[in-house]
Design brief:
625 residues; alpha+beta; DNA Primase, Chain A; DNA primase DNAg catalytic core, N-terminal domain; Dna Topoisomerase Vi A Subunit, Chain: A, domain 2; 5 domains; 5-stranded antiparallel beta sheet
Length: 625
């Protein structure tokens, strides 16, 4: 199935995917009247609060106060953005997104076809896994994993594998095909020597850790060399290189296994090693993941924020772990996240600690010794410094911390109250710990930020965002009259011209309502009826779509009303006009009192006030005679 535009693709996907079947693959549903109900997967409640409407192809949880269509359900369940949800559902529905490229542009079945690359990676993962389980050559790898305390169940759950120490082992599995070798080279499983010779197995002689994306698809590998394998590589660990599938700054090891537990727990534990992550799961810490041989970065934080409210970074108790204080503090202040740090006792990593002391001792460490990133950085910066007597060293330590905070995005007019409060608390804590006036710290922070702007001028560029891609709007309280008005209009789109003639978009608040109104006007101008289904296709913003579902369900629940929609609409328009007149009244009175109007303008304004007051009190206009 092919398509020609993003809107066509969304419509085809939405028609091809049955929301009852989709939701039913995640939770158990039962029929209730015309709808289906089940336990919401996003909060703990013994009562079914998730409702699925098969006619409207929508869902809503009345406890979470969220709703939407198939795209929104996948976004919420899988922790992905809209584009990725669309891609996932399009693949499931067999819908092509955008015009199909020519074979010269994207040769299907070759290294330019992402589906082929994913299939090749899944195939290779399976080959390596079977080798670890069955091959006599993998005995040293099996013994190594046993010594590390990795169970057979974990080997299966995390898809561990082994690559024999043979240059062409993987290539022989595909029959030596040059075309398939090119695909394997594209996904980083084969490498070429610097002199351009024949490709060889990048991971030969290594235990392999499969790295999967949030959808559970293999996209890369991490390999740990076995000394007894005879491999000559000096690197103990090797990861896949950057490929069309693999980007280490945007992937976390074990997230495909841990994401359900992370959602339930609300917290993600981030380890530094693959084995640490696996052993943590074995000891009951199923919300553990690991970075891929790199420091925790912005990309990782963005991914974790889809699933967790809080992130705890577990640092090894060695010197390298202690040096990461500044890195994690920068993340803490720049990304506005709840980031905590647990530094293990000296000389231990999570795997060693769990195996030596057990799950209970590890849980006690998490509960009692994890500190936020600011406290962690303070302890690191002031280690071995007498803050009372060593004024010079204390001043230098404070300067280093203030310099890190200065790197955070500067508070602007549109900065939220929460972000401003956060910075205030950071400065207050620093002033208290160093026993200096908060004003002095703020003065120094301002100076550093100004210096940074002078040295590296970076004008704030406003990125234009397409209408369907606006960030989720903050929903304010909706006036009851507006709410009922929108309920009627969504159920009776034929009434929109009547509404449009009487009310302008500037009178509408909050923002999601205005966007719905303006979109309906645009659809009408283009000759399209603003039906519920069409409106759900027009928006990608979950907040607006959730509001649409809420209004639609509320309007339908009220059923047939005593008066028809046109009569109800007239009454509501009258009410809204009265509210608008009342809103304008203070400004009109001020204009009359302050003067500055000519006679004609003053007479017109007085007549307008009198008309509004007669309308408000239900007094008809006077007639001649």
């Amino acid at each position: 199935m092919s398509t020609s535009s993003p809107l066509d693709a969304k419509e085809q996907v939405r028609q091809a995917i049955d929301i009852v079947e989709l939701v039913g693959s995640h939770i158990q549903l039962r029929r209730q009247g015309r709808n289906y109900v089940g336990l919401c997967p996003w909060h703990d409640d013994s009562r079914p609060s998730l409702q699925v409407n098969p006619e409207r192809q929508s869902f809503r949880c009345w406890v979470c106060d969220i709703g939407g269509d198939v795209f929104d359900f996948v976004m919420k369940s899988e922790g992905v953005e809209f584009r990725e949800a669309l891609q996932m559902l399009a693949e499931r529905a067999g819908v092509a997104l955008g015009p199909s490229p020519s074979p010269a542009q994207r040769p299907v079945g070759g290294p330019g076809d992402k589906r082929t690359l994913l299939q090749a990676m899944a195939w290779a993962e399976q080959q390596y896994h079977r080798c670890l389980i069955d091959s006599p050559e993998a005995e040293p790898a099996r013994q190594y994993l046993q010594r590390r305390g990795i169970t057979a169940e974990s080997i299966d759950t995390f898809h561990l594998g082994f690559s024999p120490n043979q240059r062409d082992w993987l290539l022989r599995q595909v029959g030596g095909s040059a075309e398939r070798a090119k695909v394997l080279e594209t996904i980083g499983l084969l490498a070429r020597p610097a002199d351009g010779g024949d490709p060889y197995d990048r991971f030969r002689g290594r235990v392999l850790f499969s790295i999967r994306d949030t959808q559970g698809r293999p996209v890369g590998l991490g390999g740990r060399v076995l000394p007894e394998s005879g491999a000559t590589s000096p690197a103990k660990y090797v990861n896949s290189p950057e490929t069309p599938l693999f980007s280490k700054s945007n992937l976390l090891y074990g997230l495909d296994v841990a994401r359900g537990a992370i959602r339930k727990n609300g917290t993600a534990l981030v380890m530094e090693g693959y084995t640490d992550c696996i052993v943590a799961h074995q000891y009951g810490f199923a919300h553990a993941v690991a970075v891929l041989g790199t420091a925790l970065g912005e990309g990782h934080i963005r991914i974790l924020n889809r699933f967790a409210d809080r992130t705890v970074l577990i640092l090894d108790g060695d010197e390298a772990g202690q040096r990461r204080a500044n890195e994690v503090l920068e993340l803490f202040v720049a990304q506005q996240v709840d980031l905590q740090i647990l530094t293990l006792p000296e000389g231990t990593d999570p795997c060693d600690f769990l195996q030596q002391h057990g799950a209970e001792a590890f849980a006690e460490l998490l509960a009692g010794q994890a500190v936020d990133a600011l406290e962690h950085a303070f302890r690191s910066a002031t280690r071995n410094i007498d803050l009372q007597r060593d004024v010079h060293a204390a001043t230098q330590a404070l300067e280093r911390l203030v310099a890190i905070v200065a790197k955070a995005p500067r508070l602007r007019q549109d900065t939220t109250r929460q972000d401003r409060f956060r910075e205030e608390k950071i400065l207050q804590r620093m002033a208290a710990r160093f026993r200096v006036d908060e004003t002095e710290i703020r003065r120094r922070l301002t100076a550093l930020r100004r210096r940074g702007q002078t040295q590296t001028p970076r004008p704030h560029a406003v990125e234009e965002i397409p209408p369907g891609e606006q960030p989720a709007a903050i929903r304010g309280p909706i006036d009851p009259a507006w709410r009922e008005m929108l309920e009627i209009l969504i159920g009776h789109p034929e009434c929109w011209p009547q509404m449009r003639a009487a009310v302008g978009s500037r009178q509408i608040a909050p923002e999601p309502c205005r966007r719905i109104y303006e979109t309906c006007c645009r659809l009408e101008d283009a000759g399209h009826a603003p039906t519920f289904d069409r409106l759900m296709l027009e928006f990608d913003d979950p907040a607006v779509k959730s509001l649409l579902v809420e209004l639609d369900e509320a309007g339908r629940a009220k059923g047939e009303r005593d008066a028809g929609p046109e009569a109800l609409l007239l009454d509501l328009i009258t009410t809204l006009k009265k509210q608008e007149a009342q809103r304008q009244r203070p400004g009109q009175i001020v204009a009359l009192r302050e003067g500055g109007l000519n006679d004609s303008q003053e007479t017109e304004l007085l007549e307008q006030i009198i008309r509004q007051e007669r309308s408000r009190q239900g007094i008809s206009e006077p007639t001649d005679g």
